[in-house]
Structures are given as structure tokens and as C-alpha cells.
Write a structure and sequence with these properties.
Elements (H helix, E strand, L loop, with lengths): L1 E4 L16 E4 L1 E2 L3 E2 L1 E11 L3 H13 L5 E4 L3 E3 L3 E2 L11 E12 L4 E12 L5 E11 L3 H17 L6 E13 L5 E10 L2 E2 L2 E3 L2
Length: about 200
């Protein structure tokens, strides 16, 4: 690694650490999500949504101990499904593609995710995946239909000329809360990443 030594009297560290700090540096590219697990959950609360029914839905899904970050709707070719991990560190960052739906007492909410994989029409090589999320007052059949329409729209706007779309999967969660608020979630959660090193001494 490069050692960047900033001595007293010199310019401040580029990392904002001040003078006299030794900083190890490597240049890396964008992280590529690799392994993932799929989970879903529901929660209800008479108190709140975010700190109530949403948190309890995360608990039902087994990911309430993590700090959740969400992606848009693209899966890399290396992404591989794995079982739910044996341990998630309390307070760890957990990056995900997530559908979250919330409703009030007596209402229905359904959340779902659909994803499929693109393969090159000529070489058969796996290119990556497309994911769509949806939530609302849907029956299971209505939600599946809506998800498939969304996935087809993504596919036909930029991918269908070069790639086949297959191995399509749908995961959904539905609830009608008896308490004031209800939340249903479905999530693809990433557990590790490939990190390209662009420059290293």
C-alpha cells in the first residue's frame, strides 16, 4: 500500500485528519455485490410506522439488528443466493433491494419483488439480473401480475435485443393489521462484495 506521511508543518491530510498522520491508501473501483439471501416479514404497531410496524417487520424477517441501505434494481452476474447467514453483527450495514408497503388497521398491504436473469443470446453467458419491487393493496395474483409487467417493461427497454430473460422468481408478503399500522417487506440482502483494486503499491 502507499503510505502517505503528513509531517508537522506540512499541508493537512487529504482525509481531513490534520498534520502528522500516516494514511494507508489503495485505489478501488465500485464494489460488486456477490452473495445474497432472500427474506420477508410483517409487523404491526399501535404506536408508529418507522419505529413500530416497520421495525417489527424487519424483526420478523430476521434483519432488525442491521442498518438497512437500499439499492435500485440491478443484480450483477456474480450474484449468488445463499442461506440466511448464521450471524449478522448488531449495527452492521446491510445493503438490500427491498419492497416495503405500509397500511392502516383493517387495510390490506402486499409487498413483492420479482427478479430474473439475462443471458447473452449468442454466447449464452450470464450478463446480470433485473429486479422490480411493488407494494400496495393487491391480492397475491394481482401483485404477481403487476410485478411481471414491471419486469417486462425493464427488459424490453434496453435489454431484449441482446439478451434472453429467464429464471424468473417472485417473492411476496401480505397482511391485514389488527393494530393501527402494518408493514410488509420482502428483501434481497447482500452479505459480501467483490472489490476491484485499481492501484496498489
Amino acid at each position: 500500500m502507499n503510505n502517505l506521511l503528513i509531517s508537522n508543518g506540512s499541508a493537512a491530510s487529504p482525509f481531513g485528519m490534520g498534520a502528522g498522520v500516516t494514511v494507508n491508501q489503495i485505489l478501488i473501483g465500485n464494489r460488486i455485490p456477490k452473495d445474497y439471501f432472500v427474506t420477508r416479514g410483517r409487523g404491526e404497531s399501535d404506536i408508529a410506522i418507522h419505529a413500530g410496524s416497520y421495525h417489527l417487520a424487519l424483526k420478523d424477517a430476521g434483519i432488525e439488528m442491521a442498518n438497512i441501505m437500499t439499492y435500485s434494481s440491478i443484480m450483477p452476474a456474480i450474484a449468488t443466493e445463499v442461506p440466511y447467514p448464521p450471524h449478522i453483527t448488531h449495527g452492521a450495514v446491510l445493503e438490500s433491494i427491498m419492497a416495503v408497503g405500509t397500511c392502516q388497521k383493517g387495510e390490506r398491504v402486499s409487498s413483492g419483488i420479482i427478479w430474473g436473469w439475462l443471458t447473452d443470446r449468442i454466447t449464452g453467458e450470464k450478463y446480470g439480473g433485473l429486479v422490480c419491487e411493488e407494494c400496495g393493496d393487491y391480492s397475491q395474483a394481482e401483485l404477481s401480475t403487476q410485478l411481471r409487467a414491471s419486469l417486462d417493461e425493464l427488459y424490453t427497454n434496453g435489454f431484449d435485443d441482446r439478451f434472453e430473460l429467464g429464471n424468473i422468481r417472485v417473492e411476496t408478503e401480505t397482511m391485514v393489521p389488527e393494530k393501527k399500522y402494518g408493514t410488509a417487506i420482502v428483501a434481497i440482502c447482500f452479505t459480501n462484495y467483490m472489490v476491484p483494486v485499481l492501484q496498489q503499491a
